[in-house]
Amino acid sequence: MRDSRLRRPAVVPDIVSGTVELTTTPPLVQRPSGIGYAKEHPADRDRRGVLWLRVASNPDGARGRPEFGRVHPLRQRRVMRRHLCQICSRPASRTALGTLWLIEDHRGEGPDWPEGCATVHPPLCVACAEVSVRLCPHLRDGWAAVRAQDPQIQGVYGQRYTPGLLAPRAQGPGVVRYDTHQAAWVLAASQSITLYDCTLVDLP
Q1: Digit-coded pLDDT (tens) for 141-156
Q2: What pLDDT is recorded for position 204?
Q3: Which of 75, 54, 63 is nearest to 19 (CA)?
Q4: Which pTM was predicted?
Q5: Is 170 within a domain?
Q6: What is the H or E stretch that residue 34 is in?
Q7: What's the distance, CA 196 to chain centroid?
C-alpha cells in the first residue's frame, strides 16, 4: 500500500521553496555600514541596498518537494512587487476597493485596524483565496479579507544583527523598515508590505 505522506499536495503556493532550492548563504562579514558577504554578487542586495539570503539557482526549473514552512525569497519579492497571487502567480484580485489580501484577524487591536498593518504575505486572486482559508496554517486561528488601495513596500522580514567584537551578532528575526538604521543590519528573507486605504470585505 502506498504511503499517503508521499503524495504531492494538491495546492502548492508558488512562493513555497522546494527541497532542491537550498539557501547557500556564506558567512557574514561586519562593516561600518552594516553586514555583508565577503564576495557579494549584484543580486545579493535589493534596490534599496538590503542584503538578502542566497538561494541555489536551478536552470532546469526543478524545485523538488515543497517545504511549506520555507518561503522562496526571490519569488516572494517578485509577487509582492508586482501584486501577483502568491499561489498561482497570476495577477491578484483588484477592484475599486483595492487589491485583495488575507491576513490574520487582529480586529481587537483597535478601531483603525487593519489600516497601516504590515504583512509578509503577498496578495491573492479570489479563487486562490477561497482555497487558502481552508488549507493555510497561518489562517487557522482566524482571518480577515482586506482590500487595500495603497499598499506600500516599506520593509523586510529577516534575521536582525548588531555589531559584535569580531563578527555581527544575531538578535533574532523580525520586520525591519527600510527607512531605519536597522535595515543595514538585517539579512532579509521576505519583503514586508504595509496596507493603506483598507476595507474589510467578504469573500464571494
Answers
A1: 889 999 999 999 999 9
A2: 75
A3: 63
A4: 0.86
A5: no
A6: strand 34-37
A7: 18
